[in-house]
Fold these 2 entries.
Entry 1:
Amino acid sequence: MHIVVCIKQVPDSAQIRVHPVTNTIMRQGVPTIINPYDLFALEAALQLRDAHGGTVTMLCMGPPMAEDSLRKALTFGADRAVLLTDRYFAGSDTLATSFALAAAVAKIGETFGPVDMVFTGKQTIDGDTAQVGPGIAKRLGLNQLTYVSRITAVDQKTREITVERRAEGGVQVLKTALPVLVTMLEGTNEIRRGSLADALRAARAEVTTWNAADAGITDLLKCGLRGSPTVVKKVFAPSARAEKAAMIETEGKNGAAMADALIAAILDRNPALDADLRRLSAGF
Amino acid sequence: MSDAPRQAPAAAGRAGMKKELPEHFKAYKHVWVFIEYEHGAIHPVSLELLGEGRKLADKLQVELAGVLIGGDAAELGEAAKACFEHGADLVYRVADPLLTHYRNEPYTKTLTDLVNTFKPEIVLLGATTLGRDLAGSVATTLLTGLTADCTELAIDDERSLAATRPTFGGSLLCTIHTLNFRPQMATVRPRVMAMPEAVPGRDGRIIDHALDMAEIDIVTKVLQFIPDRDTNKAQLAYADVVVAGGLGLKSPENFQLIKDLAAVLGAEYGGSRPLVQKGWITADRQIGQTGKTIRPKLYIAAGISGAIQHRVGVEGADMIVAINTDPKAPIFDFAHVGIVANAVELLPVLTAAFRRRLSVHRLAS
Ligand SMILES: Cc1cc2nc3c(=O)[nH]c(=O)nc-3n(C[C@H](O)[C@H](O)[C@H](O)COP(=O)(O)OP(=O)(O)OC[C@H]3O[C@@H](n4cnc5c(N)ncnc54)[C@H](O)[C@@H]3O)c2cc1C
Ligand SMILES: Nc1ncnc2c1ncn2[C@@H]1O[C@H](COP(=O)(O)O)[C@@H](O)[C@H]1O
């Protein structure tokens, strides 16, 4: 079985700061990580490979330094890594991203053998749209399984797969045919600690690097900014409410007095809350 | 928010439009809301979107349509009534046994066929697991733009949908447009928009459309649906009073103070995202852009800084009360009542004061 896992390199969001004056994101010095959601996809793919045999190919679109993330993924035991990098991809929205990634998956199939499954994370922590997975599936005509919490069975002979999928108000048990695209739900597994052998192999491994032409992309109008129907027109800081918050005076008050003043301010603003709180606190 | 008056003058046709819409897209008119109808019920997010869609349609001076897809025409007819009462002028109904349970393939085909036939300029969907699964496929099939998880929708001077969502990292919002493609698509999470008032007896037209597909064309089968046993999950989003804590509480033990106050108030409790990442609370208790959006009558936030991703999840609250040691914390920019105080010390006293007050009332009543 040949499985492709799409991973994205993202800035560690916990360490991002916004410039207080210019309102721009200060990325300098912010460490990059593998999008945390993608590790659940990677682990699910590795488990399938271990159970059924085959190979796992990692695919990442990004700047040349994204190679670090691919190398890191190799230490967990992935077999191969492909970096898709070209300045034509800059500024891609989800439609343009899924176009480029779909083309690369097709090329991976031609180059390294037919692809049975594509995995993506549920979403990225920077783009945060959860759209790239469905986009890739649609472009490649793959059966789409999103928000998968468990892969219950894969039958290589009949080429059927059964999964549990998180739906609204419950779990759907779905059966479909390979090839499929799976977006994996978070918290469904835990990424393994790679072996020492994998770490050594990853350090020496070659990361296949493709530009647009290498990936068989000829229509550059579908890439990057030009291939993106959505346009960011404005980036801005949220404004404070016109009416300032009523601040409770704390000077010279002990805790009990502060609490009383706070409750008074709340009920002063909305006297009807008193009845609501009485009803709720009594358990209705 | 686009608080456009119902009879707003047409804003279109203004000179200086930056990009001319290609000729073949000019026929695209009207605002659509995909109505999520499953297990005999409409998902509340779809009605919330009808309320928002109504404002957009009025501003554009076009009609608002609901798209209802499912297995049984009579059942969908009943559901259509709720759509009319919540603002829809018409409903496109596609009833076919193949559509009884949500599956990506037939639903994507149905919605893309409808769009290609009736040409809406805006299509809105709930950002639920169903809505996101469907929206991404439909937008890719139509090769148009899709903006996910919007917190605000408006129509700009050039008749274009201005979809605002939080952007990467700290505290910024961005407004996204789909300039030369139609339809313009967006998803919005449950509870972000207010539920519109229903107008009993408000009526509309139903337009039936057939699905051109046979079961044999559909590869994916639904073997089973296992309903959630724990309905608690929904309660936080719909609670009247919510108490939440953030990193300012300093330790998981101190989080108990939040639960204590919530218990006395009969409230639900939740927290900021870092608490989920640290394992202090479970993911279904996270409040904010990537957690639950809430619209309670009273929201008390203790030791939460008020980053944009948190703010967009609570802005619909009638009253926001903030307890924070830092007078410059962003949460005071959108709270209604604030106190600069140490939450670890104030919470127990506040809980005691509320308990006294509420038990006195209980004796009196
Ligand atoms: C894509 C993305 C999605 C996100 N989604 C969400 C989301 O859904 N929900 C969410 O909450 N966050 C989300 N975040 C994270 C968000 O940006 C903030 O990092 C987070 O909300 C901060 O949590 P906090 O306020 O608890 O912690 P901090 O920002 O560390 O704030 C702690 C606050 O406590 C105050 N404090 C300290 N000690 C005390 C004390 N003793 N008493 C009272 N106050 C005290 C401090 O002054 C400070 O204001 C997201 C981020 C990204 C990048
Ligand atoms: N540039 C990229 N390179 C590789 N995979 C990506 C890229 N962008 C998105 N993905 C995949 O698509 C998923 C959803 O991303 P998003 O739609 O941005 O939330 C991610 O979890 C990744 O698996």
Note: Chain B touches chain A through 94 residues (CB under 8 Å).
Entry 2:
Amino acid sequence: MTMNMTKPKSMLARRILVMFFLLFCLMLFSPSLLSHVLPNKGFNLLFGYILPLVLVLSPLYPVFARTVPLEGAGGQQQAARVRSLSRGLWIGVAVSVAALAVAEAVAPNVSIVTSLIAFCALQFAFTIPLMREKNPACKPVFMPETQRAASLTPRHTGVLPTWAWLLVWGVWIAAVISCLPFLLLSGTPGGSRSDIIILLCAAAAPLALAPFAIHWWPQSPEPMDSAGNAELADTYRHLRSIRAWSIWAVAIVWAAIFCTRAILTAWRTDQATLRVVDQTFLPIFIATMFWFQLKYHVWRRRATALLRSLTGEPKNPS
Amino acid sequence: MITVNLNSSTPLNEQLCLGIRRAIAMSELMVGDPLPSVRQLANDLGINFNTVARAYRDLEKQGLLNSIRGRGTVVASNEETRREPEAVVERRLSEDLRDLLASAQLAGLPKEVVERIIRGELIRLWPTKEKGK
């Protein structure tokens, strides 16, 4: 018998890439990078010191996410691969922290760029391969070797992508159309018109990504036990809904930040008002992202535990 | 829910066909119900897209499924098109059953157990009629 086997696509890797992209846009959009003229100490602290450190340390996440019983899945070889990747990740993070410390001595903006490069390198070289080895969403390791089950209920009804697209694109098109004339006519206080174009592009970049993300996230593989289980199917349904809503919520909050900031810039408002807007909306944006991430991980853990109990896999990984 | 066995001697696309046929016969899938996309089913089962696509195509040829533009694949609504001549079905059922019963006998399964299994399956497929008896 010929078996046509393919690896299910990595859902977590995609999520990490989307988060990274949003963070990148957020930093481009931030006054500390875009316009150096803003004497904003709070933002410099956040984007010059805290965020770079978080970016450099965040790739360590899969080292602590001990969710997969490797013994039952890939055996000795997989455990060895995980160990070598973990070791490489620790060394990479140590080198990145040292580089960051040197960069901090030069300038906060240099440290941001250093942390972004380090984050990218660590993600692609170690974190994503490690997640693929360890996470059940990336590989169907919980399923017995021979027997596999799947739901016959379609996850796409056709209604979901339509109104998702309308919601995300509609909000953004309205935002861009309403702001564009002001921006092109006026320019920023202390900045040039090209700054405005960069700001527009940076803020609108997630727009290009969001519909695709909405399209493929609900299609992530959902490993089932050999007989199938209604409770597990319900848990997956809940996870899908969290994923979809998180993208919509983030897109809307992002649009609100963009509109408010663009209109205020066009009106040549004072820096204090602009700072208040930044300090109100950006924390909401970040909090929204983290709230959905937290909720998602709680449900993900629940699904993993349920799957483990159904397949009878050992609880403790190697 | 559909289950496939990767070590079985039956090809994967045939297992998929059998699973979907069974789901339709047992009313888990009703007429007009949409099926998951080829990509979704292939991802969930960890098998190639072409295998799932081939199974869907075979079932379409048999008249069990319909591909509708914009809606995907649905369970066929016209029951007449999927119905084979009764004599052909009877003959095939008889042959298949004989083979299965022969394997059960060779495996040393008692007649009572075989009867119980067959009765159980009949009740699952024709619940009202069997319960009424």
Note: The first strand of chain B starts at residue 2 and ends at 5.
